[in-house]
Amino acid sequence: GCRSGSVEVPRSVTAVLGQDVVLPCGYRAQEGEKVVQVTWLKRGAGGAAAEVAVLNPEHGEHVKEPYAGRVLRRAPGALDDGAIVLKN
């Protein structure tokens, strides 16, 4: 079989209306693995998923409307830390 690392996210995140919130996402890689892209999705009513942001060091960061200007990476560098900050 093929082993892979694990995604580490909290079960819930509390936000305060009008303030920035960090949405954490970490990846604990196995030896030889490298994260090449992180995609953030928002689940809507009925379970449908809409793309919020794609983080890719080679092709840049792309944030979809209505989140443009409101989503930033929390930390530069390797995508093992794929957390984002959702502004206000």
Search tags:
3-stranded antiparallel β-sheet; 88 residues; 0% helix; Immunoglobulin-like; globular; mainly beta
What does this structure look like?
With 88 residues, the protein is mainly β. It contains no helices and 8 strands. The chain has strands at 6-8, 21-23, 26-28, 38-43, 49-56, 60-63, 71-73, 84-86. β5 and β6 (60-63) form a beta hairpin. The chain is globular. The mean pLDDT is 91. The chain has one domain (6-86): Immunoglobulins (Immunoglobulin-like, Sandwich), CATH 2.60.40.10. The strands form 3 sheets. The protein has a 3-stranded antiparallel beta sheet, with no helix packed on it. A 3-stranded antiparallel beta sheet has the order 4-5-6, with no helix packed on it. A two-stranded antiparallel ribbon has the order 1-3. The chain is 0% helix and 38% strand.
